[in-house]
Amino acid sequence: MGTLFRVVVHGDDAAAAQQAMDAAFARGRELDARLSDYRPDSEINRLTHGRVSDDLWTVLVMAQRIARESNGAFDVTLGPVVRLWREARRTRRLPSEAERTRARAQSGWQRVRLDEAARTVAIDPGTRFDFGGIAKGYAADEMLAVLRERGFPRSLVAAGGDIAVGDAPPGQLGWRIKPDWTNEQLTLKNCAVSTSGDSEQWVEIGGERYSHIVDPRTGLGLRNSSPVTVIAPRGLLADPLATALSVLPREEGAHLLRRFPGVRAVRP
Ligand code: AMP
Ligand code: MG
Asked: Which residues contact ligand 1 via a Cβ below 6 A?
């Protein structure tokens, strides 16, 4: 998934903790093989139509829900546009208007149809997925679940800016988490926290700073985007909502959040 995963486990049996961590990382690798667009052989890069793994189904259902509720601000079919931006970051050259138009024409969440009864997927030919805005949050949830099942509920999984936490560390009220854009700490347990922003991944072209998060309406990386941190019951929700809130104007973002009780956002 193009990021570093970090796991913290509290317990009093080091060998068992190590085994639990190994199992959690094995689960992470399994998800990487399904959901990463960096791997040509991943499930999402080979998908055409029909039945998919339980993991891909779970992530697609949530991705489509957030796409619908955000009017497409969050959209996992933006693969062609995101690829143009990866290229722009490498070459430090803006994609041409024609390239952007073509990439946008190949994107759009309506290209994916989920048949809930048959549990099958149909996608328009040429669709390219990019789960970069949702897969890490889901992976953090799932790796945390493995640690809990193995008797280590006091654990944390951080996949870059997407973090899932279990029970509080011994003697503490919660895990102290400091998003990189603020000096304030959050104290959290049994939830997920995701931060989106361009503090790490951006490119400067012609004096403008563009984020790795793209605006589907323009096909360009976001400019002047401010960071946002979302706290939600699960990373599967926190991760895509943080990405969506980065794209949406503040008021539309606040409107989107109201549809998700138990979720809150912190921003500068
Ligand atoms: P995040 O760091 O979770 O905000 O996700 C950013 C990543 O999601 C980017 O690196 C792209 O891979 C992908 N992405 C970029 N723009 C969007 C968007 N508008 N909707 C969904 N995914 C996006
Ligand atoms: Mg995200």
From this structure: 74-76, 78, 82, 130, 132-133, 196, 212-214, 216, 239, 242-243, 247
Distance of CA 31 to the CA centre of its chain: 13
CA atoms of 76 and 83, how far apart (whole Å): 12
Provide the token pair at 216.
């589907």
For ligand 1, atom 6, the nearest C-alpha belongs to 133
User: Would you identify the CATH topology of the domain 5-266?
Assistant: T-fold (3.10.520)
Q: Is 136 helix (H, G, I), strand (E, B) or coil?
A: helix
Confidence of residue 47 (pLDDT cuts 50, 70, 90): confident
Whole-prediction pTM: 0.96
What is the distance in A from the centroid of ligand 2 to the CA of 229? 10
Dump pLDDT digits (tens) for 145-186: 999 999 999 999 999 999 999 999 999 999 999 998 999 999
Backbone angles phi and psi of 155, in degrees to 5: -135, 160
Domain-wise residue ranges, the chain: 5-266
- In which element (H, E) is residue 214 found? strand 208-215
Ligand 1 centroid distance, CA of 158 (Å): 17
